[in-house]
Each structure stands twice: as structure tokens, then as C-alpha cells.
Amino acid sequence: MGMGIMKDGSKYLGVPTSWGKSKQETLGYIRDRIMAKLQGWKQMIMNPTGKEVLIKDVAQAIPTFPMSCFKFLKMLCQKISSDICRFWWGEKEKGSKIHWIRWKELNEPKECGGLGFRDLQAFNIALLAKQFGRMVQEPNSLWAKVLKASYFPNSSPWEARSGASPSWIWSSLLEGGELLKKGSHWRVGNGGSINVWEDKWLNVRDGFISPPPLVPSNGMPPLKVSDLFQEGVREWDEDKIEALFSREVGSAIQMMPISWTGREDAQVWGLTSSGLYSVKSGYHLAFQLTQRKNRGQDSLATDLCSLLWKKIWHLKVPPRLKHFLWRIIRNAIATIENLFARKCARSPICGLCGAEIESIEHVLFRCEWTAEVWANSGFMFPSPVNRVVSIKRWMVSLIEDWGDRFSEKREIAQRAILSKGMTGLFPAQTECERTPQRLGIPWGVFGSSLFARDVPARIMGK
Ligand SMILES: [Zn+2]
Q1: In this protein, which residues make up the domain named Reverse transcriptase zinc-binding (predicted)?
Q2: How many angstroms separate the CA atoms of 337 and 286, rounded?
Q3: What residue segments make up the domains of the chain, in order of their start?
Q4: Helix H segments across 43-163?
Q5: Least confident of 8-12, 153-157, 315-319
Q6: Which of 148, 256, 374, 458 is 20 to 30 A from 307 (CA-CA)?
């Protein structure tokens, strides 16, 4: 027939055509491809913004196609993520540099204090959900017919189960289906496809639910929504509804209009305004579901925090300065206190003034050597800088105090100088072996004054 025979190990559309026994091994080539990219980039000197773009748009996009077909093993996702994480924080000749923030937290969206790097497992599920949705929408395509014949010949895809020995593809798709179910509800048409007790179809104040029976019981007989219609008429059967549900639930059901045309019931994705599934919204849901409930004990209100991050990421200053602000607010800086906590310094005390622990607030504001810089900067801050206890709260109070003026041009210019000044106090020094002697001459420019915080502990004004 003129057909060639595929050799073992060959690929079609970037996916291997034959699978060995180990899924880990077969998909290992993806990690290799990402590693190769990262190795290439390591030769280049890159700022955080450049790295961020490469990670998001190139490295994390590599597995998109295979991830639309297969559920990756958790271990593989973790290995890929830790490769990327090492690239992000940088590597030294021996081992990697300090990872100041856990990868999981870098996965958080930017408005929550993370960097929005993809959580690969959540991304995987979001892509599988899209594929499951395609299977539902294209029931006449060959692949959907094959799957139906094999796994759910007598039911709808929504009711399909994994069966005794499901293939990898099928169990992967089902996981995508689970996500779709979590973010969707039913739009009642002829009511024939919707299970009254299991599916979300009743619209109440908090969203869509499956209505609870009047008498809670585990053994409610299966019932379709169409069974609640009057025989032969498109109207709710009041008597039936009264017998099965509480008065409140019953009246909510009867408020629902019934389709006159008797169209098919449809699943509606609840997280986009169009009701259509998007990988972005699916990822958002999958990511939320994987997050630990009580992450971090942050005393600041969530909305204030997200306002702070939004303001920072929208500042009209060079991106590397925004990254620097992000790092100081996340306390991801090699202060002596942080180094001491990681057993990289003998004492947490400031090497310049010796008066306090060298925390981020100390080194940026309270140290007598730094306070001098601010005093000469001519800035009018809402509260004296030498009393700054929490950099995060201080930034929030700055935003509150400046209010809308935060975005005014003159303020932007000041903000630029401010963050530049802070960058100046911290030149690129995240190595473990940082000591005051190795600091060199960090400098900050404030207005027309040039200051240097020198070793040993002098501030020089020019
Ligand atoms: Zn000090």
C-alpha cells in the first residue's frame, strides 16, 4: 500500500508513536527539551524580566501538546518545575543559588504576590478539560466515536466512568472532565440528560447546585429533570416538586423557565462570560483547587495586598525595578538576617551599625547609614522612615496616603527614583557568601545627591 513502517522511538506531531512500559521514561524527552533550552539561556546574562518571559512563553509552553493528551505524572511535573526554578534563581559553579521563595508561591498570580509561573499539573488538567469538551462537542468525530464505543457505549460522556482497565488517554481525559464538571452547570432544555440529585442545574443565590431532597437520604432513586415536568406538557409538575423538595427549593425550581423548543440540555462553563471553556479560566480553577487552603499567615487583608501588587506591577518604571520591589516586599533579599536564618552568616546583626538585626526594614530604612540617605532625599513620606517596621505595610500606607496621586506623572518620576535608590542600596548580591566587606560600594541616587554606603560604614555625599 506504499505505507512506511514507523520505527520504534519515532515521533508524530512531537509525541512518541510507541510507548514503553514506563510513562515517566516515555515523556522524559519533554524534560530533556526544556533542559536543553535552559542550558542555552544560562550562557546569556539575563535580567529577571527576560527570564520571566522565556520561562512563561517558551519553557512552560513546550509540553502544551502532549499535556493535551496525557496526564503527566506528578513526579515529572515536579522535576521540570525544579529545573525551571533553578534557572530562575540562578546557578553557581557548585550548586544553585538560594531559592528565596518556594516555587509553589511563584505560581501564584502576580496580584497575589507571586510571579504567575504556571503550575504544570494544573495546566495539564486545564488542557485535558479542553480536550474532554471537544469530545462532547464533536460526538461524530472518529476519535470521539472510538472512545464512546470503548468506554461509554450506553451513557453520555458526563456519566462515563473509568472502567476496569482504562487506557492512559482515557483516564487522563476523565480527569479533564472532572474539572469541566466542577466549573460548569447545566442549562435545562428537555431535561433528559440531567440527573436531579447529582448535577448542578438549579440556580440559587450562591450559584448553581444540585437541589437537596426534602428528606435527606442516601438512597434517592435516580431521577432526571424531565421527570419533574408534567406528562406531555412543558410545565413543572407542582405536586411532584412539593413531595420531593422543601418549599424554598421547590419555588426556586418553579421559577426556572422551561425551554419551549425542547432543545438539548447543555453544560455551560461558569467562569467565562461567554459560557465557553477557555484554558486560561480552567487553569485558574485547577490552580485554586490545588492550593492549600490556609497558605501563609498574612495579617494584611487580601484586597489591600492585591491592590499593592497591582500598583507595583503597573508602575511606569523599568521592569527590573518592579522586580526589585517585588523581591524586597517578599523579603527575598540577602539581608544578614535572612542569611543567618539559612546558616550562611554567623550573626544576624547589621555589619555596619551593629545596633540591630539586619532585616530588610533595617537595611533599607532604619540603619543609621541608610536613614541619612533618606533624610537627604527630600522625600515627604507619610510616616518617618526610621520607624518602618514592615516594608509591606509601609508600602500600603504609601499607596493609601498618596491615593490616586500614585499614578500622577510627577509621582511616577519620584517612584522611579525611589525604587532606583533602593536598588542602589542592594546591588546584585544574592550570593550566600555575602559579607559587608564584599558589598563593594552600593549607591543610591536621590534627586541630585549621590550617596555611597561604603565599607567600612561610611556614607559619602556628593
Ligand atoms: Zn545597620
Answers
A1: 277-374
A2: 36
A3: 12-181+277-291, 189-264, 333-414
A4: 48-57, 64-67, 74-89, 103-106, 120-137, 142-151
A5: 8-12
A6: 374
